[in-house]
Design brief:
The longest helix is centred in the C-terminal third of the chain and has 15 residues, at 135-149. The protein is of the alpha/beta class and 150 residues long. Strands 2-1-3-5-4 form a five-stranded parallel beta sheet, sandwiched between helices. The chain starts with a strand and ends with a helix. The chain has one domain (5-149): 3-Layer(aba) Sandwich (Ribose 5-phosphate Isomerase B, Chain: A). It is built from six helices and five strands, in the order E-H-E-H-E-H-E-H-E-H-H. It binds D-ribose. D-ribose (RB5) is lined by residues 11, 13, 45, 68-70, 72-73.
């Protein structure tokens, strides 16, 4: 099976984790699009949330990984973007189920919360699972309706 193309982005707090995950993704055979940042110099996470999500919305990448200090700021920013379903995870069960049940297209990880090893397990679980559809598609449709209405 062909490996997915994955976008990845981070702020300064997530930069080192982004670099580590990028290496692991490449070694695992994924094509990776790096949407910045490119150093640990202080920067503003919403800009990089948008840059990473844009790769998914433009069809260049199928899924996106966003790293900041907690993962929370990235997920809040990403979820403001129409068409993005992002979740911040620090356990493998949730990282898998946001694909299976929520058709999440963005995984957010907190570099000050999880170590590199667990972060890689989260990313692997997220990328390895496919949306189950069925009743979950109805619910995701209701999320999209909320987005349209509000
Ligand atoms: C940066 O200090 C930090 O606030 C940011 O990386 C993130 O954790 C925000 O949610």
């Amino acid at each position: 099976m062909e490996k997915k193309t994955v976008a990845i982005a981070a702020d300064h707090a997530g930069y080192a984790l982004k670099e580590a995950l990028k290496l692991r993704l490449t070694e695992a055979g994924y094509a990776v699009i790096d949407a910045g940042t490119d150093s640990d110099k202080s920067c503003d996470y919403p800009l990089y949330a948008e840059a990473g999500c844009r790769k998914v919305l433009d069809g260049e990448a199928e899924l996106c990984i966003l790293c900041c200090g907690t993962g929370a700021g990235m997920s809040i920013a990403a979820n403001k973007i129409k068409g993005i379903r992002a979740a911040c995870c620090s356990d493998v069960f949730t990282a898998r189920h946001i694909r299976l049940h929520n058709d999440a297209n963005v995984l957010c990880v907190g570099a000050r919360v999880v170590g590199e090893g667990l972060a890689w397990e989260l990313v692997s679980a997220f990328l390895g699972a496919e949306f189950e559809g069925g009743k979950h598609a109805r619910r995701v449709g209701l999320i999209t309706a909320l987005e349209e209405k509000n």
